[in-house]
C-alpha cells in the first residue's frame, strides 16, 4: 500500500502541476498532495489488477477518485458546512486560501477528475472509459456524495434513525469507495458478473469505513486523527456508536468486513490478497 | 432561438427531475430552470447542425453547457465571492436555500454535466464523446472558467491592464462559449479543419459577449438585466468601458462579431444562418 500511495502521489503531482493562476493551483495542490492514505486509489488499482488489467489502465481513474475525494473534503470543511479548521493535521484549505479560493479549487478538482479520466486513460476502450465516467459521476453527485452530505447537514441536531444514518453513510462515503473498486474493474476489462461481485465487496467496505469513522471520532484524539475529534458529539450528530453503542458498532463493522472478504472467495487467493488486505485495513484502522 | 430554448428547457427538466433529497433537487432545479436565454445550448445545437449532425446528437452536450454555466452562476453569487442577491430577476440560490445547499447543488450540477454527456449522448462514437468531455473539462476548470474567476477576484479593487482583463474574459466567459460551439461540432461529426474554424468563430463571440456584458453593466438598470446593475463600478472592477470608454468598447465588440461571422464564409449560407444570427444576437443584445 505504501508503494501504491507513492505511485499515486507521483501521478497526482504530475497531473496537477503548479501553473498560473498561482493561488488556484497552490490551493488545489495543498489539499490534493496533503498525504492522505490514498485508500480509494489503492482500491481502484487493486481491483484492476485482480481482474487481470495492467495497473496503468486504472491510474487516471485512481487519481480521479482522489481528486473528487479531496474536493469533497475542501467543500465539507467550509464555514457554511462543517466549519472545520484542521484536516490531515494541517489547517483546512479555506483557512489558508480563503473561502472563495477553496470553493473554486474544489470546483477545479471536481472538473479535472472527469477530464483526466477522459484524457489520460490509455489502453482501455472508449466505451469502457465512458462507463468509468458514468460510475464516478453517479458516486459524486446528487445520487451519491452530494446527496449524502445534504442529508447529513439536514440531520444535524436532530435524532435520526438507522435508515437515515445508513443513507448518509452509503451516499457520503460508500459511494465513492464503491466507484473506486468498480471503475478499477471496468478499466481492467472485467465482465459484468465480476463487476457486480466487486460492487458488493465495495459496498460492504464502504459502509464499514464510515462506521469505523464514527467509532474513531469517539475513541481517538485530534492528534491521532489529524482532524478535529469528538466533532460528531459536539454537533450532536447521530452516529453508529450513539445509536448502537461502541461494542455493537464494532461488531457491525467486523461483520461488514467479513462479508466483503467473502465476495472475494471465487478469485485466485494470491491475486485477491491486496483487496483482502485493504478490507482488513479499513476494518482495523486507527485513524 | 425560442424553439431551441424550449427544447433545451424540456431536456433539462427531464435530465434533472425532482427527487430525494428534496432540498438538493429543488435548489438545482431552481437555478437550472430559471429561464436563462440558453445561449450556450443554442450555439452547441447550431454548430452540430451546421456540420451536418442531427440536433439530438448534441442535445446532452448542450444541456451540460447550461449545467456548468448554472453552477458557475450559483457559486459566483455566493457571499464569499461576488455576493450577489439577484440573478435572472430572482433571489440568488444561496438566498433561498442557504450557502451550504447552494455550494452542494453547484457541485451536483457540475458533476452531472459530465455524467450526462457520457450517459445520454446517442449516435456519436465513444471517442467523440470523450473529446466532448475533455473540451468541457478544459473550459470549466483550472484552465478555463475557474481560472478566470480566480483572476477576476484577485483583480478587484486593483487597476489591471488590458492583458489581464482579456485573460479574465477569455477564461471566465469565452471558454464555455467556445466549448459549446466546439462540442456541438464534434458531436455533429465535423472534421478537424471545420472544428478549428468554428473555434475561431466562438472565441470571437465569447470575448464580444463579455465586452457587451461590461457595457450593459454601465448602461442598463437592474430591472433590465435581471441582476444587480452597476456592480462593476461598485466593486471598482476593471472593465472594457473603464479602460477604453463606452464608444471604443462598442467598436471592439462590433469588430469581434464581424470577424466571427467572417469565419462562417466557407459554409452554406442557409446552414450558417443560425450561427450568424447568434453572433449578431450576442453583439446587439440588451440584457
From TrEMBL, chains A, B:
* Known pathway: Isoprenoid biosynthesis
Q: Name one Pfam family in it.
A: polyprenyl_synt
Q: Which GO terms describe its cellular component?
A: cytoplasm
GO biological process, any: isoprenoid biosynthetic process
Q: Which CDD domains match?
A: Trans_IPPS_HT
PROSITE patterns reported for this sequence = POLYPRENYL_SYNTHASE_1, POLYPRENYL_SYNTHASE_2
Which key words tag this protein in UniProt?
A: Isoprene biosynthesis, Magnesium, Metal-binding, Transferase
Does the UniProt entry include the keyword Ion transport?
no
For molecular function, the Gene Ontology terms on record are:
metal ion binding; prenyltransferase activity
- List required co-factors: Mg(2+)
At the top level, the lineage of the source is: Eukaryota
Q: Indicate the family of this protein.
A: Belongs to the FPP/GGPP synthase family.
Protein name (database record): Geranylgeranyl pyrophosphate synthase
What organism is recorded for this protein?
Volvox africanus
